[in-house]
Amino acid sequence: WQIKREYHVGVKKGPTRLPMELIRKIIAYCSNEGDLVLDPFAGNGTVLKACREMRRKCVAFEKSEEMWKHAKSECNL
């Protein structure tokens, strides 16, 4: 797969954000609508967001409270 990285101008440098296109491809290959996806390292919430768009259920964990708050706001949780 050739997928370009997403760069966010003006955003404080932090953990790497994986391209949404890559996450969608992985979820599509590994699950079906309605399946449960586990994301043990939620980070920015990219997997949560993709699961919602692709009609998957998702359980996510994040040890950093700051990152979890960010993920929740990104995903409107």
Can you walk me through this structure?
The protein has 77 residues and is of the alpha+beta class. It contains three helices and two strands. The protein has helices at residues 20-30, 46-53, 65-74, and strands at 36-39, 57-60. Strands 1-2 form a two-stranded parallel sheet. The model has no long low-confidence stretch (mean pLDDT 87).
Helix-strand category: alpha+beta
Distance between the termini: 31 Å
The helix/strand series, from N terminus to C terminus, equals HEHEH
Number of strands: 2
| Low-confidence region ranges | none
Helix content: 25-40%
Q: What share of the residues does DSSP label as strand, in percent?
A: 5-15%
* Distinct helical segment count: 3
Average per-residue pLDDT, rounded, comes to 87
Query: Rounded to an integer, what's the Rg over CA atoms?
Result: 13 Å
Largest sheet: 2 strands, parallel
Strand order of the largest sheet: 1-2
- Which shape, going by the Cα principal axes? globular
